[in-house]
From TrEMBL, chain A:
It comes from Lentzea flava. It is a multi-pass membrane protein. Its main location: membrane. This is Mannitol ABC transporter permease. Keywords: Cell membrane, Membrane, Transmembrane, Transmembrane helix, Transport.
From TrEMBL, chain B:
Residues 90-300 form the ABC transmembrane type-1 domain. This is Sugar ABC transporter permease. It holds the Pfam family BPD_transp_1. It comes from Lentzea flava. Belongs to the binding-protein-dependent transport system permease family.
Length: 266, 313
């Protein structure tokens, strides 16, 4: 009986993984081998698809994506950690209301704010500007980060904080010597999850950026209407653009559910 | 219960205790200070644009015709509600969201139950199952559109050819909505699986053991013990999935470009504002989306809040 479950699980795993594996394999084929029917699995491998992708102007969008994702993640952490502190370790009055206000902003569809944000960007001369996009990604990720960080900070044992305080440790010492070491894995997981969300974002990037500040997902939309021999190149592009997310995702694997459910599931 | 929210584990939770008695009591403003930057930033960036959307939704405003701008009353709302394209986009949004959430929830439940068993290579299978969720959404949609669905050299028709079938269907044009749904199910099933797996693994062992000793069948154990425990995880998965998928833009934009009757509300608003430059109508549609989301969000917040209280108790 258990053997059947194992076989089934392996089968399901392979089915779900097949498109990813196929994307990877096709990215290593030549364009002509990539576009055959039936598919040529054993065709010789080549890095031409990658060469063409990187020579085709892929660096600026990748760098834009990195700066928007990393920049917004850093700002979000700087804003979220103190806020989470004020919602868990030294909670303000009505802290649950504040917490749920953060969550409720995440439930509003971003598309409804698209036009005014576009108009503001236009008015401020910030269209096609990566800093503006970075700022937007901060607001997108801040509620998630606050919820997550609060959930991690509330794991800091109260007794230790009190003991440290009685022993005469000041606020800075407590933060550095007690809170930080316990919260560090949580901070890392929060950072990785914010990075993934920013990196994946398309709608705002598509509307607000153009040739200068276009991000990697915007670059990928160039393939939407492509025709002819481009499969190896599009697969190489998909692999390269997804690689940071795959790495960050697997690095944060244990905390991934907690992050995606805004800390609701441990 | 080893469950939800993070107010964290039992006796350490913050909510069930009276507020701590600080040795040195801080004034109120000092407690609030760390919270303010985040709060103000969020209000400015997320709430003010909604106010602007509301204002613009009552204006006549097409950016291609800038002189003809003014108050329009409820005209935009009337236009939105009488526009057949927009009405069908509402239906599409509901169909898309409901089918993706339900199918991936059922598949995710099956996979979570399988992964809850012990077998050789479980870690590897888990990793393979998570991978689809970690492909960038636009990239995933491109792969489905060009590499899997393509009628001439796509993998699906290649496999059909291999197996000796003559049929070489054009997947996207013959079943556009299902094509979008399938690609999203592929991406979202791992998400549901992860949530449900977390639920299964937090299930207490003793009652199951006791039931087994008392002669309960595996089905009875699932029906009366596992399923009730999983219910809140199923609810949570469904709600979070709905919130994310209602807003889906990438798959519709990439796979069908909103054509063939698949345009959902986010795509429709994008098009009304970005391509047709009808600012007033796009805003009215936006306000309607917000109103719809508030309904879902109210349920979602209620569920999260009840889990939150349960954990804090």
């Amino acid at each position: 009986m258990t053997r059947i479950f194992g076989v089934l699980a392996w089968f399901a795993g392979l089915v779900f993984f097949a498109p990813v594996a196929w994307m990877f394999l096709t990215s290593l084929h030549s364009e002509t081998d990539a576009a055959t029917n039936p598919p040529s699995i054993a065709a010789p491998l080549t890095l031409d698809g990658y060469a063409e992708f990187f020579n085709g102007g892929a660096w600026p969008p990748l760098l834009n994506s990195f700066s928007a994702s990393i920049g917004s993640t850093i700002i979000v952490l700087l804003l979220a950690i103190p806020a989470a502190y004020a919602l868990s370790i030294k909670p303000v009055e009505k802290w649950t209301d504040v917490l749920f206000f953060f969550l409720s902003t995440k439930m509003m569809p971003v598309v409804a704010a698209l036009l005014p944000i576009y108009l503001i960007a236009q008015f401020a001369g910030m269209l096609d500007n990566i800093s503006f996009l970075t700022l937007l990604y901060c607001s997108m990720n801040l509620p998630i980060a606050v919820w997550l960080m609060r959930s991690f900070l509330s794991e800091v044992p109260r007794e230790i904080l009190e003991a440290a305080s009685i022993d005469g440790a000041g606020l800075i010492t407590i933060l550095r010597r007690v809170v930080a070491p316990i919260a560090m894995p949580g901070i890392a997981a929060t950072a990785l999850i914010c990075f993934i969300f920013s990196w994946n974002e398309l709608l705002f990037a598509r509307v607000l950026t153009g040739v200068v500040a276009g991000t990697a997902p915007v670059y990928l939309t160039g393939f939407v209407t492509s025709q002819g021999l481009f499969l190896a190149k599009v697969c190489a592009a998909a692999v390269v653009v997804s690689l940071p997310v795959l790495i960050a995702g697997f690095a944060a694997q244990d905390k991934l559910v907690q992050g995606l459910s805004l800390g609701a599931v441990k | 219960m080893a469950v939800l929210d993070s107010v964290s584990t039992g006796e350490r939770s913050v909510a069930d205790r009276p507020p701590p008695v600080p040795r040195r009591s801080y004034p109120k403003w000092a407690r609030r200070a760390p919270l303010l930057p985040a709060l103000i930033f969020l209000i400015v960036v997320t709430q003010l644009p909604f106010v602007a959307t509301l204002v613009i939704s009552f204006m006549k405003w097409n950016s291609l015709d800038p002189t003809n701008r003014g108050f329009a009353g409820f005209d935009n709302y009337v236009n939105v509600f009488t526009d057949p394209d927009l009405r069908s986009s509402v239906v599409n949004t509901i169909v898309l969201t409901a089918s993706v959430v339900l199918i991936s929830l059922v598949l995710g439940l099956g996979l979570a139950l399988l992964l809850d068993k012990k077998f050789k290579g479980r870690g590897l299978v888990r990793t393979m199952l998570i991978a689809p969720f970690l492909v960038v959404p636009v990239a995933a949609a491109l792969i489905w559109k060009h590499v899997l669905y393509n009628p001439e050299y796509g993998l699906f028709n290649g496999i059909l050819n291999w197996l000796g079938f003559d049929a070489q269907p054009d997947w996207i044009s013959s079943m556009p909505m299902s094509a979008v749904v399938l690609s999203l199910v592929w991406q979202w099933t791992p998400f549901m699986m992860l949530i449900l797996l977390a639920g299964l693994q937090s299930k207490p062992v003793e009652p199951v053991e006791a039931a087994r000793i008392d002669g309960a069948s595996p089905f009875q154990i699932f029906r009366y013990l596992t399923f009730p425990h999983l219910r809140q995880y199923l609810e949570l998965g469904a709600l979070l999935g709905s919130i994310y998928i209602v807003q889906n833009f990438d798959a519709v934009f990439t796979i069908t470009s909103g054509g063939l009757g698949t345009a959902n509300l986010p795509y429709m608003i994008y098009q009304t504002f970005y391509q047709a430059h009808e600012y007033g109508e796009a805003s009215a549609a936006g306000v309607i989306v917000v109103a719809g989301s508030i309904v879902i969000a109210t349920f979602a917040l209620r569920v999260v809040s009840s889990l939150f209280k349960e954990e804090a108790r």
